[in-house]
C-alpha cells in the first residue's frame, strides 16, 4: 500500500494575537487561530461569504521569531499538515484538529499594530545593538555588461502612416 499525502495550504488572517508557550522539554510552541474567507454564488445567485476558522501550531525557534512579528489581523500563508488528537473533558471524549505548520509566510495586507511588551513601549529587536558592517567589493571576474536596448521604433498612427517631424522650439536644461 502506498503512502498518502497530508498537506494543507491556507491563506488568511489571525483572529487574535498568537500565544507563545513552552513545553516541558523547553520547546517553544506558538498557537493561533486564523480565518479563511470564501465568496461564492448560492442557489439563488446571491453572493454569499463563508468564514472557516483554523487552529495552527508552530514549534521550535521559528515559533519564538513569529511570536514577535505576528499579531491580530496579520495576513499569513500557512503550509503544513492536519493532526487530530483526542482528550477527555467532563467524562466525554473530544477531538481537536490542528494544522501543524511547516512553513509560514507573511502575506502582506494591512499591517497590524506593532507588538507591545508594556503599554506604549515598542519591543526591541535582538539585532538593534549590532552595528552595520560595510561589505568589501566582490572579488573575481566582473559581470558582463548589460545588453544594449534595441533601437526604438518610431510611433505610428492608427492608419499606419508615420507622424510628421516636429522641430524642438526650446531645449529644457536638466
From TrEMBL:
Span list, region Disordered: 106-174
InterPro entries registered for this protein in UniProt: NA-bd_OB-fold, Primosome_PriB/ssb, ssDNA-bd
Alphabetized Pfam families for the sequence: SSB (PF00436)
Compositionally biased region (Basic and acidic residues): 115-126
Top-level taxon in the UniProt lineage: Bacteria
DNA-binding region: 53-59
Keyword hit for Nucleotide-binding: no
Protein keywords: DNA-binding
Gene Ontology CC annotations of this record: nucleoid
SUPFAM superfamilies from the UniProt entry: Nucleic acid-binding proteins
Gene3D superfamilies from the UniProt entry: Nucleic acid-binding proteins (2.40.50.140)
GO MF annotation terms: single-stranded DNA binding
Example of a GO biological process term: DNA replication
HAMAP family noted in UniProt: SSB
Binding partners and assembly: Homotetramer.
Name this protein carries in UniProt: Single-stranded DNA-binding protein
Encoding gene, per UniProt annotation: ssb
Amino acid at each position: 500500500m502506498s503512502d498518502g499525502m497530508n498537506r494543507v495550504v491556507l491563506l488568511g488572517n489571525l483572529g487574535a494575537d498568537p500565544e507563545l508557550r513552552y513545553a516541558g522539554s523547553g520547546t517553544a510552541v506558538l498557537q493561533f487561530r486564523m480565518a479563511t474567507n470564501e465568496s461564492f454564488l448560492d442557489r439563488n445567485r446571491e453572493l454569499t461569504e463563508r468564514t472557516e476558522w483554523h487552529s495552527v501550531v508552530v514549534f521550535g525557534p521559528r515559533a519564538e521569531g513569529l511570536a514577535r512579528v505576528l499579531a491580530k489581523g496579520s495576513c499569513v500563508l500557512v503550509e503544513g499538515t492536519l493532526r487530530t488528537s483526542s482528550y477527555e473533558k467532563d467524562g466525554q471524549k473530544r477531538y481537536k484538529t490542528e494544522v501543524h505548520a511547516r512553513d509560514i509566510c507573511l502575506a502582506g495586507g494591512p499591517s497590524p499594530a506593532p507588538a507591545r511588551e508594556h503599554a506604549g513601549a515598542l519591543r526591541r529587536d535582538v539585532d538593534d545593538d549590532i552595528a552595520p558592517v560595510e561589505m568589501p567589493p566582490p572579488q573575481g571576474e566582473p559581470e558582463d555588461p548589460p545588453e544594449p536596448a534595441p533601437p526604438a521604433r518610431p510611433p505610428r498612427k492608427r492608419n499606419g502612416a508615420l507622424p510628421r517631424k516636429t522641430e524642438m522650439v526650446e531645449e529644457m536644461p536638466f
